[in-house]
Design a protein that fits this description.
mainly alpha; Hypothetical Protein Yqey, Chain: A, domain1; 149 residues
């Protein structure tokens, strides 16, 4: 069993003992999504798999947050912000802009990428190094800028 999954389970138990209803609800959403994927794929999730699930959940929450704010539903927006905060507790420390730039340069050099058609190779080399620590959309923009410029 992955360490991250165990940590989420222990945090859920602690929140239950503390009778923190909102935190328990948010953690149960995380546990349910992990369990759903394990059942669907009939396999135990690794730490990287759990990070992928958490990333997807964060992206969904950010999308919902934007929609709720645009619709003036502050009550629902507040709930999404809270869930984002709970999910972020289990994410690794994000990489700085300088560290990301260095990783992009390293990946471009190691793959021998020189033009846009090589972007897939560069992103493939970067993904395992930045999983859960950087926004892949922003990273894609950095790679494009590096390959074009």
């Amino acid at each position: 069993m992955s360490d991250l999954k165990l940590q989420i389970g222990e945090t859920t138990k602690a929140a239950m003992k503390a009778r923190d209803k909102d935190r328990v609800a948010a953690l149960r959403l995380v546990n349910a999504e992990i369990k759903r994927i394990e059942v669907d794929e009939r396999r135990e999730l690794s730490n990287d798999d759990v990070l992928t699930v958490l990333n997807r959940m964060l992206k969904q929450r950010h999308d919902s947050l934007g929609q709720f704010e645009a619709a003036g539903r502050e009550d629902l927006a507040q709930k999404e912000r809270y869930e984002i905060g709970v999910i972020r507790e289990f994410m690794p420390e994000p990489l700085s802009a300088e560290a990301l730039a260095a990783l992009v340069d390293e990946a471009v050099a190691s793959t021998g990428a020189t033009e846009m058609k090589d972007m897939g190779k560069v992103m493939g080399a970067l993904k395992p190094k930045v999983q859960g620590r950087a926004d892949m959309g922003a990273l894609s923009g950095l790679v494009k800028a590096r390959l074009v410029g």
